[in-house]
Amino acid sequence: MKKKIFDFILNILIFWVVLDLIPGLKTPYGGISKFYGGIVFAIALELADTLRSVFGLPKLITVRVILGTILTFGVLWVINSFAANVFSFGPSFVGGANMIFFNIPKLFVVQDINMVLLLTALIGNFCSIIIFKIKH
After folding, report:
1. pLDDT of residue 42
2. 82 burial type by CB count under 10 A (0-12 exposed, 13-18 middle, 19+ buried)
3. Predicted TM-score of the model (pTM)
4. Beta carbons within 8 Å of 6's beta carbon, 6+ residues apart
């Protein structure tokens, strides 16, 4: 039980960091909005694991990425469409980071909100899988 709670909290923190990296994100309540987003992300990943086991799908990384991304995208789309006062996504870009010793240029601009949601879900799932593979 302690492991499940720790994994849930770790997924909340992972998505908090991912939301910090999205430049087109508007959070009216600041950290509370990101915390709610993290909770939704963690619930979506737990639901993805449950669906995987119910349908008897193998424990492959690709299955986890596909299910997690689909569920996370769906939940983010619902929040962005119907609860924009929690947080809302806008046009964004990939790259444009200022590191300590170098700058990463903007790679491309994403104007479509659904594509921004998909990229956010995909990046969140990849980060979660990498962190949990390192943890184990």
Report:
1. 92
2. exposed
3. 0.84
4. none
